[in-house]
Structures are given as C-alpha cells and as structure tokens.
Amino acid sequence: MRFKYFAAIALLVLATSSVFAQEGEMTVVDEVIAQVNDEVITLSMLKRETKERIEALKQNGMTEQQAIEEVTKKQAELIATLINEKLLLQRGKEMDMAADIEAEVNRRMLQIARDQGINSIEKLYEAMRQSGLNPEEVRKTMRTEMMKQAVLQSEVDRRIYLGFSSDEV
C-alpha cells in the first residue's frame, strides 16, 4: 500500500515538473519515430498523416470511430508509407530531378489558373486562400507527388518496360 502511495506521488511530481519546465531547460517539441538516411520522420508528421487519412475515410462514408479504428489498425503500414515516400524523394534529389519537377509544378499551377479563368498566379493564390487552401501546401503536395511518380517511372517502370541492360543482368 505504501509503495503505491509513493509511486503515485513520484508520478505526480514527475508529471508536474515536465509541464513547468524552467527557463533554459530543454523541452521535447517533437519526437523522431524513424530516421531515413539523413532525414527523419517525426511524431507530428505521423499525426498529421493519420488525421488526413481519418478525414478521407470519413468523407467516404465511415463514422469517425470506424475511421479511427481503421487507421489505427494500419499504423505500421502508414509509417512504412512515410519511409518509402522519404526514400523516393531522396532518390529524386540524387537524380537531380528537382528543377524539372519545380517547372512542372509551375506549369500545372498556371494551367489551374487558366482553367479557373484567372489571369495571374497571385490571383490564383488569393482565390485558394479564400477557399481555405494554403497555396504553399498545395505546391508542396504537388511537388512531392510528382517527384515520387518521376522516380518510380525512371527507376521502376523504365526497367520493366525497357528491360535490363546486359550489365544489370
């Protein structure tokens, strides 16, 4: 009985001391859950991705509880997906694809503006903000998806459809 009482007090002291960190003390802002070469995947990244997946499932007709259970059940797959994405983006940088991808993002943004009857990128960005979208986040998402596709096309599809060279065989 005495041990439980002391354990409860110790837990309470530890919990309050971490909440009221003194000036100059280090506090944990985010937590690394995986390291992928020289980059990391953080807990906040995982939480953001989890939230997005839950929202997508809810939009497809699931209740919030069902969506949470489904995403929680596939948490390991989600982490693996984030790792694979980092690896694809790193490979794209190694292959010097960034400039081509950025040019394609710019072309697509201009096309979206034209399709909407908007005559400048600044006006497109303003329209996006008014509709609740962050233009930089949209560009980042487009850049990421295009980079992943370009790497897969270059590294996987090319080899499947064009075959292996004699050196690779």
Topology:
Elements: H1 2-19, E1 32-36, E2 39-42, H2 43-59, H3 64-73, H4 75-94, H5 98-115, H6 121-130, H7 135-162
Antiparallel strand pairs: 1-2
Quick overview of this protein structure:
By secondary structure, this protein is mainly alpha-helical. Helices cover 72% and strands 5% of the residues. Strands 1-2 form a two-stranded antiparallel sheet.
Account of the protein in words:
The chain has seven helices and two strands; from the N terminus they run αββαααααα. It has 169 residues and is mostly helical. The protein has a two-stranded antiparallel ribbon with strand order 1-2. Helix 2 crosses helix 3 (64-73), helix 4 crosses helix 7 and helix 5 (98-115) packs across helix 7.
| Unreliable residue runs | 1-20
Shape: globular
**Alpha carbon gyration radius:** 23 Å
Mean pLDDT: 83
Task: Quote the beta fraction.
Answer: 5-15%
Instruction: List SSEs in N-to-C order.
Output: HEEHHHHHH
**Strand order within the widest sheet?**
1-2
* Proportion of residues in helical segments: over 70%
Structural class assignment: mainly alpha
Compute the separation of the termini in Å.
70 Å
* Multimer state: single chain
Q: How many β-strand stretches?
A: 2
Count of separate DSSP helical elements: 7
Main beta-sheet strand count, sense and barrel state: 2 strands, antiparallel
